[in-house]
Amino acid sequence: MGTIGAVIVAVGWIVTAxxxxxxxxxxxxxxxxxxxxxxxxxDRLPAAQEALETGLAxxxxxxxxxxxxxxxxxxxxxxRACAPASSDASGTRCFAPLSNDTLGxxxxxxxxxxxxxxxxxxxxxxxSHSARARFLFEHCLPEGTxxxxxxVEEPGDPVYVLGRMxxxxxxxxxxxxxxxxxxx
Length: 184
Known about the structure:
Blueprint: H1 3-22, E1 34-37, H2 44-53, E2 59-63, H3 72-82, H4 84-90, E3 92-95, H5 102-116, E4 120-126, H6 130-140, E5 146-152, H7 158-178
Parallel strand pairs: 1-2, 1-4, 2-3, 4-5
Helix pairs in contact: 1-7, 5-6
């Protein structure tokens, strides 16, 4: 491939990565059976809890990944939300993903959907992660389960954004290669 070909590929990647990971459009959300807060919880859990309080769902499922709870604030927030008394009162359920990645979270939620008969979920995650999360959840959840995504904003500094574009490109390729691990 010559210089022109390399430039075309680079520009194509930049445009695609910007559309998927930096500037995806937040679709209007409507009521669902359950909200899912993906790990790490720092910004995601408060956004999911706020959506729960506004009536977007009556259940909140929180992905509990101890490795993602390094900050005391995160651990306190998740421990409080997952405490038996608050969980029973609020419809909250904490779950351990089948593996410590988004695929593991999607597979665990698929099991919860089958156990509970839920027909629609809102997955709460960061903007840069929203396309990959939607891809995995739509492929892993039982046929006919509606998947919406609540996007949580991230820092906008250029170094962070470029890092997320590179990371999500590689992670999306990994997700596409591993999607057969989802069974319907």
